[in-house]
Amino acid sequence: MWCLYATLVWIPSVHAQEVEGLEKVLVGIQQTFPEEVASDELYRAALEGVAQHLGDLMGVDGNRVWTAEEHRDQDAWMDGHREGIGAEFTIIAGRGIRITAVFDDGPAASAGVEEGDVVVSMNDHPFTGQSASSIHGFVSQHAGLSTTLDLRKSDGAIRRVTVQRGSYRIPAVRTTVFDDNTPVARIPFFGKGTASAIAAFLRAQRSAHAVVIDLRDNEDGSMTEVIAAADLFLDPGSIVVNKGRTPTQMSPVTASEPAVWVRSVVVLVNQGTRGVAEAFAAALKDNGRGVLVGTRSAGLAVASSVYPAGRGYMMKVADVHLASPSGKSWSRRGLAPNVVVESSGLSLSMSGVDSPPDLQRETAIRLISSSGVR
């Protein structure tokens, strides 16, 4: 049980005697219920109780206990591996689901699904005339191992395909150029290699005077990658983030390398921008290096570490409080964008396959085009 003690040692109220006492309780219970209670199950339950308690102390609910296999799955997640059909979409009220991205070598790509396709029916359930919430509810409840989709293709023809749920990989950064000279980098999460991919993206933009960094629905990730990514935009010595074991005991982490990009930046954020992604956005905003466009972010101002917990278990624990370079925490309230733009809730007609407007991205591009970003 010494490794569990190592997990808890930073909390002043936990002592070795208490951990030893917990071990004795577990042994006693095992002796009293020799058949009904498995030793490893009891051990994991105790760890999950500890994880819950530490989460309560930090004000979060994301702490986890993993087996070695589950921890390997998490490592794969940080490398971009996912399970599903391998496509992103947006819901168009009254019409269906528009496919906005299809990942190479994923199940959707293998089945013939293409970016721009509109799913008008799923498992023989038509979406015509339905509200966005009804479409979302049906998709959430019927996303099984095998899904039949009726797709309206770019030529207006309807094609039926069956997609088998499986594994696919999303890249660390996805890039697009709009209006011939507005580069957009979509960052879905801060995983392995994200900072290097952003650096490569920035170095390729020789003629652009500004870039858009899309952090909407960013799934959190590695604080190390965030610090390295923010360093690409900041002067040496600039504060990237303040970190501490308590909200009142913070230490700054500063940029150390010359900036790769010194031109303008617009950062797209929304309620799905969470955790260390918020730290990246705050670093650029507070240092005057980026304008935030969109809606308030999620308000998760903590970073997590993974600790060995004995018997093959690992424990993911939110153990570090975060604050912006100015010293302000975005916990619970989120980051306020410089320019507030709600996402589009418009529905489109059934004719053609026009894309729904992305008002947040369009606002970012207008700011750049009108020299509203410095």
Summarize the structure.
With about 375 residues, the chain is of the alpha+beta class.
Structure description:
The protein is globular, with a radius of gyration of 24 Å. Helix 7 (194-203) runs parallel beside helix 8 (223-231). Strand 3 (87-92) and strand 4 form a beta hairpin. It contains ten helices and 19 strands. Helices cover 30% and strands 28% of the residues. Strands 3, 4, 5, 6, 7 and 8 form a six-stranded antiparallel sheet that branches. It has three domains: 2-66, no CATH class; 81-168, PDZ domain (Pdz3 Domain, Roll), CATH 2.30.42; 171-369, 2-enoyl-CoA Hydratase, Chain A, domain 1. The protein has 374 residues and is α+β, with helices and mostly antiparallel strands. The protein has helices spanning 2-8, 16-32, 39-58, 68-78, 107-111, 132-141, 194-203, 223-231, 276-286, 359-369, and strands at 64-66, 81-84, 87-92, 96-102, 118-122, 125-126, 146-152, 158-164, 166-169, 174-178, 182-186, 210-214, 239-246, 249-254, 264-269, 291-294, 302-308, 314-323, 339-340. Mean pLDDT is 86; it is low at 1-16 and 345-354.
Features:
Pdz3 Domain, 28% strand, 10 helices, 374 residues, six-stranded mixed β-sheet, single chain, 3 domains
